[in-house]
Amino acid sequence: MQKLIDARQLTIQYGNEKVLEHIDFSISEREIVTIVGPNGSGKSTLLRVLIGALSPDAGTLNRRAGLRMGYVPQRLSFDSNLPMNVKRFLSLGSKRGNAFNSSWEKRINIEHLLNHQIRHLSGGQLQRVLLAQALMDDPHLLILDEATQGLDQIGEASFYRLIEELRNERGCAVLLVSHDLHVVMSASDRVVCLNGHVCCEGTPTIVSEAPEYRALFGHGTEGALALYRHDHDHDHDHDHDHDHSHSSGSSEGHSHAG
Fold first, then answer.
1. Angle formed by the axes of helices 123-134 and 153-170, to 10°?
2. Rounded to 5 degrees, what angle do the CA atoms 199, 201, 203 make?
3. Structure confidence at residue 66 (pLDDT)
4. Confidence band (pLDDT; 50, 70, 90) for 216?
5. 229 closest CA partner among 160, 166, 170
6. Is the distance from CB of 192 to CB of 34 less than 8 angstroms?
7. Is the pLDDT of residue 152 over 70?
8. Measured distance CA(66)–CA(243) in Å, rounded
9. Left, alpha or beta for 57 (phi > 0: left; psi -120 to 50: alpha)?
10. Quick check: 1 and 158 in contact, CB under 8 A?
11. Which of 67, 194, 197, 235 has the fewest C-beta atoms lying within 10 Å of its C-beta?
């Protein structure tokens, strides 16, 4: 499959401190890649470089010509006095107009929220609205930066199941960022463990067993994978701000020391 983004030997430096060093990263069409790492590991910095908000100090970065990206941030604050409903918010910034229609409003379960004020939405409702806006221009690559912060387990699993379904139905690649492997959904093709450099990468199972990952997150992390293993034998109610379980049982992949 054609690569959407291909980065080689990226280095980001703030003053004398190297935040990221010698990062090789790529994501291809329809691929789901999850970046995990502890707080301060450079995950959000790497995203900023990949989307073009920050220039690397060294290395090369190539994006496919005409690449459209949709972005769901960690959080988005709204002025409590700002009178803006969901329908108006979704209309802001779209370049493709009718690319997102009422069927997708229903699909993401925000149809009943269109006349609600943004400032009154719950955490789970706001995340689905932000996801809807990110999909407005029919992106080739959907990027989510710790987008489930503030959701409980049922809401988290519901949100990630929806992301998996969107990838399958729309054909977009997905890049997820998380602070922990336990939110990696079963469909993740690859996990990259980051801590200023690439510590290890591979399938969720391979990464969870890698010494580099365990050194960062501690032993017993395989229990998180077992908790989040998901059999896809039932439907989720996407209107809950809750979550339950999923992750990959695949044993293919690789790890390497950074």
1. 10
2. 150
3. 95
4. confident
5. 160
6. yes
7. yes
8. 35
9. alpha
10. no
11. 235
3-state SS string for 152-211? CHHHHHHHHHHHHHHHHHHCCEEEEEECCHHHCCCCCCEEEEECCCEEEEECHHHHHHCH
Q: Give the pLDDT mean for 189-196.
A: 92
Decide: helix, strand or coil at residue 105.
helix
Token code pair at residue 6: 């291909």
Six-digit token string for 98: 């009718």
- Here the tokens at position 201 are 């990468």
Q: Which residue segments constitute the domains of the chain, with CATH numbers given?
A: 3-227 (3.40.50.300)
The pair of structure tokens assigned to 202 is 């591979």
Strands 173-178 and 69-72: unpaired
Number of H helices and E strands in the chain, helices first, is 8, 9
| Bridge pairing between strands 141-145 and 69-72 | parallel
Show the DSSP H helices in the chain as ranges. Answer: 43-51, 86-91, 102-107, 123-134, 153-170, 204-209, 211-217, 222-227
pLDDT at residue 230, as a whole number: 37
Q: Using CB atoms within 10 Å of the CB of residue 185, give its burial: 0 to 12 exposed, 13 to 18 middle, 19+ buried.
A: buried
